[in-house]
Amino acid sequence: MSVVTQASMQMGLSALASARLRPEMTPQLAVQTLLDAGDTQDALKLLARLLPKRYAVAWLLQCAREQPLGLEDKAGASLAEKWVREPNEDNRRAAYEFANAGGYRSLGAWLAAAAGWSSGSLAPASQEQTVPPPEHLTARATVAAINLMAALVSEQFEVRRTAFIERAMSLLNASANGGNR
Question: How confident is the model at residue 178, as a pLDDT?
Answer without folding.
Answer: 60
